Amino acid sequence: MSVFIDIAFQAEVSRFEDSEFEDSARRICNEDPETRHMAIEELRNMIYQRGECHPRRTDDAYLLRFLRCRRFIPALAHKLMVRYEDFRLKNIYLYHCNAFDLHRVKGVYGGTLPESPVNGRITLMRFGRWDTDTVPIDDVVRCALLMDEVAAMQPKLQILGVTIIVDLEGLSIRHVRQLTPTIAYQIVSLMGVSFPIPIHALHIIRYNWILNTFFYVFKQFIPAAAWERVHFHGYDMESLHKHIDPEYLPPEYGGRCHHVVTFEEWVRKVDRYKDDFMVQELRALGFTVKT
């Protein structure tokens, strides 16, 4: 298993455009290799002509992230880019941290490998496990930010996308008190609203009466079009299985996946396998990266 995990993480920092995913890109992203360059050029022209944002990069590979996330519709990709750049400008302080020193945020995030062909990367968010006494809320947000920025560099995830499971077991008033409207906006933005990561669905499980308070803070920032991708399952794992094959879920959710990659493991492995391009990109975004 450790050999498989190492291979998976070497792929995590890869920007190789694998022809194996060409059919998936066509099906999921409406990407046509023969017309791809025209869509990229159309998006590039929109950026220059409209002047609504000033991205640090406009090369083909960068613009491709946004087009894949919006089914190769340049106008929608441009709107997403404007939101992403706006998020960065308003929250630049979140990037001002040591990218690979966030492993202290324990237990909150996890994910399953390999990716599901239907659901993409399955990411677990367990806010009830967050230790509010030792970990500031900004660092919890920074972890999601780092995961998003690294995922957006990877062509495979640009195509396959992400499915998010929000497990609220253990959530208490001490957690909810930390959730200001600004924090809620940041988290919703990182869940795909303002980032070039395709989000298939958001599944909310194992919650109690606090859900109403918790979700009230968030729902004002969730676009109406995204509500059809939000599913509430409570403790009914069979309901969750209707959307996600148990093969890609951990045993605690009635699944058969016995290796859930914790955020601590993910950040250590990405740090180990990072290349010069990733280091340069993260530094350009504002992160501190030690080599």
Automatic annotation (TrEMBL):
CRAL-TRIO domain location: 96-255
SUPFAM superfamilies cross-referenced by the UniProt entry: CRAL/TRIO domain, CRAL/TRIO N-terminal domain
Pfam families: CRAL_TRIO
Cross-referenced InterPro entries: CRAL-TRIO_dom, CRAL-TRIO_dom_sf, CRAL/TRIO_N_dom, CRAL/TRIO_N_dom_sf
GO MF annotation list: phosphatidylinositol bisphosphate binding
Listed GO CC annotations: membrane
Name recorded for this polypeptide: CTD34
Lineage, highest ranks first: Eukaryota, Metazoa, Ecdysozoa, Arthropoda, Hexapoda
